[in-house]
Amino acid sequence: MASEAFTNVIGLLSAARVTPADPVDEIRAGVEGLGALAPPVPDTQAGDVDAGGVPSRWVAVGRPAADDDGSAPVVLHFHGGGYVMANPGTHTAMCSHLAAASGGRVLSVDYRLAPEHPFPAAADDAFTAYRWLLDQGVAAERIVVAGDSAGGGLALGLLVRARDAELPLPAGAALMSPWVDLTGSGESLTTRAAIDPILSPELLVHWATLYAGDDLADPAASPLFADLSGLPPIVVQLGAREILYDDGLRLVERLLAANGQAEFDVWDEMTHWWQILAGLVPEADEALAQLGAFVRRVTSGVA
């Protein structure tokens, strides 16, 4: 059963549900407000950095965010927001919980947003940030890429692009409610539309078009359709009520069919993007604690 805190917050978000008619600037302001409400873990340290030309933010708990002892995990995080909104500031609480749970640092990437910067701008920024981490001497086996919603799509696309570029691959990937099919072909966009209080099929179509235009099926924009062989272990965390459920389900099926390692982590009664409520609801804290354990596991060499 969902906690009272979760029920209350989701009720407020549902009442303010975004529609395609809402101006992008107003949507961005609303998400900024939500991000300001979520408290980070105590003793969170954050510092901005230029990651090869891509603005980013280090987040750590209990130590200076920019310090690297050469052994702790590094999580490369891409925020969600339909490719049109949010930034590292809106996700500071989420990243602080992930840093605390993983025992490492999080580099939260402020990639360019649509419609001002359409595809492939965000994907290019994700790739640049990863290459920058490697150039800083961070070993690939210490890195886990992570992303929520659209950020999950960026994280998966980054893995494919890094593999094709013959770069060292990260130790794993943690994908939260990933949006990996911009064509909207998943059945859950219809079957779960009435029970997802956050997203609607119409909104996803609108955002997908703002970002990728006519390139919705391009595997670089919709990595569900890419060759998924040869990727590191991936955990896919989903809420049972979200319309992107089939994006995550089909992703896990395709990863397993490609002889990959994939974990399918479904949370009853949870909605899309519940992890961003870290610090506000216990379910988000618990979900990020589990992802932190995954990060520790794959970066320690235990698959």
Descriptive terms for the model:
Rossmann fold; 38% helix; 8-stranded mixed beta sheet; 16% strand; 9 helices; alpha/beta; 303 residues
What does this structure look like?
- The structure is a single chain.
- Helix content is 38%, strand content 16%.
- The chain is an alpha/beta fold and 303 residues long.
- Helix 5 (150-164) links the parallel strand 5 and strand 6 (172-176).
- It has helices at 4-15, 24-37, 92-102, 121-135, 150-164, 188-191, 201-212, 245-257, 282-299; strands at residues 44-51, 54-61, 74-78, 105-109, 143-148, 172-176, 234-239, 262-267.
- Helix 3 packs across helix 9.
- The protein has a single domain (4-299), classed as Rossmann fold (3-Layer(aba) Sandwich).
- The mean pLDDT is 95.
- An eight-stranded mixed β-sheet has the order 1-2-4-3-5-6-7-8, with helices on both faces.
Topology:
Blueprint: H1 4-15, H2 24-37, E1 44-51, E2 54-61, E3 74-78, H3 92-102, E4 105-109, H4 121-135, E5 143-148, H5 150-164, E6 172-176, H6 188-191, H7 201-212, E7 234-239, H8 245-257, E8 262-267, H9 282-299
Parallel strand pairs: 3-4, 3-5, 5-6, 6-7, 7-8
Antiparallel strand pairs: 1-2, 2-4
Helix pairs in contact: 3-9, 4-5
Judging from the principal axes of the Cα atoms, what is the shape? Answer: globular
H and E order: HHEEEHEHEHEHHEHEH
Oligomeric grouping of the chains? single chain
CATH topology grouping: Rossmann fold
Low-confidence runs of at least 5 consecutive residues: none
What is the count of DSSP helices, taking H or I runs of 4+ residues?
9
Counting DSSP E segments of at least 2 residues, the number of strands comes to: 8
Distance between the termini: 31 Å
- What Rg, in angstroms, do the CA atoms define? 17 Å
CATH class annotation:
Alpha Beta
Mean pLDDT over the full residue set? 95
**Fraction of residues in helices?**
25-40%
CATH architectural name: 3-Layer(aba) Sandwich
Q: Strand order across the biggest sheet?
A: 1-2-4-3-5-6-7-8
Largest sheet, strands/sense/barrel? 8 strands, mixed
- Measured by DSSP, the beta-strand proportion falls in 15-25%
- Secondary structure class reads alpha/beta
How many structural domains? 1
CATH superfamily: Alpha/Beta hydrolase fold, catalytic domain
